[in-house]
């Protein structure tokens, strides 16, 4: 059973999300929060597998709430936003969110997002996610810190670059002539060396460090 916490300041939105999730045998909504501060408290108390987090909320916004929940390692966070190109979404990914959804997403996409996040993966397949990351990584304010990559081997950097381009483990294996098991080992080592916990954070770091250039080049 995958447990979920809903964090949104609009009761109707929370009711709609609950209705979509509670009908599934493997999904269960443990609680609801109407602001970011309450979301942090409930995540600590209930320890849900996934928090569906709105960005714009009173008391404490979804960005800071995401940062605190991820830092506490209580749950994975999927940001749910009204706009598919929202600067705050990029910041949420940097804070450790495992991906994001727009509020008008199809019910099946919402359920899939929860399941993907719960198993430790990130929502990187939609092209809009990559476009958003590229857009904000390309801004002058984006930090470039190549020193964070010094612990990686040349092969690990190669794998990281492919992850940042949105390739799955299977696609990376085919491109780099490795077995999927070897790719998975590389990915796990990269996350361990960099102190990151999922592919979304790997993508952000790849762009910020300059390993991958906005537009798709490595």
From TrEMBL:
Record keywords, A-Z: DNA-binding, Phosphoprotein, Transcription, Transcription regulation
GO MF assignments: DNA binding
UniProt cross-references to Pfam families, sorted A to Z: GerE, Response_reg
Residues where 4-aspartylphosphate is found: 54
Domain Response regulatory residue range list: 3-118
InterPro entries: CheY-like_superfamily, NreC/VraR/RcsB-like_REC, Sig_transdc_resp-reg_C-effctor, Sig_transdc_resp-reg_receiver, Tscrpt_reg_LuxR_C, WalR-like
PROSITE patterns noted in UniProt: HTH_LUXR_1, HTH_LUXR_2, RESPONSE_REGULATORY
Transmembrane annotation, as ranges: none
SUPFAM superfamilies according to UniProt: C-terminal effector domain of the bipartite response regulators, CheY-like
HTH luxR-type domain location: 145-210
Gene Ontology biological-process entries: phosphorelay signal transduction system; regulation of DNA-templated transcription
Protein name: DNA-binding NarL/FixJ family response regulator
